[in-house]
Amino acid sequence: MSEIWLKPHVPDSFVDLHGLNTFSFFRISTKKSFYSQKSLLFTIVYSLPKLGHLFVFQADFEKYLLSYFVAMIIGDINIDLNQISFESGFLRNFCSNHLFITLFSNTHHTSSSHSWIDHCFIRDQSLLLQSSSFPF
What we know:
single chain; alpha+beta; Deoxyribonuclease I, Chain A; six-stranded mixed sheet; disordered N terminus
């Protein structure tokens, strides 16, 4: 799962998972949800293309991160880590302080380009047992 299309009008009961607490923050520019259980912070992010920065997300994530031993972010962040840009530099810098970038190959393809805009980050690399560029 790399994208989530929850809207503010969707009731929490449709997305409740037994044993998990759901914290949702809906903003015009990005939609994100934090799922947590005890010491696990599991974050799903969708960021609109060309948003330009993730400063608000970074502040929210770091606020929650202090309370969790295990942390993971997955999502369609729409920042191409194949490119050298302000956005990719910001994302790499954010991860260098807290998270391991799970290596994938390109995740978005058009007839003229290939980009790495879907990401998975984990706080402790030793907890990552396996990763793949293919969904199955």
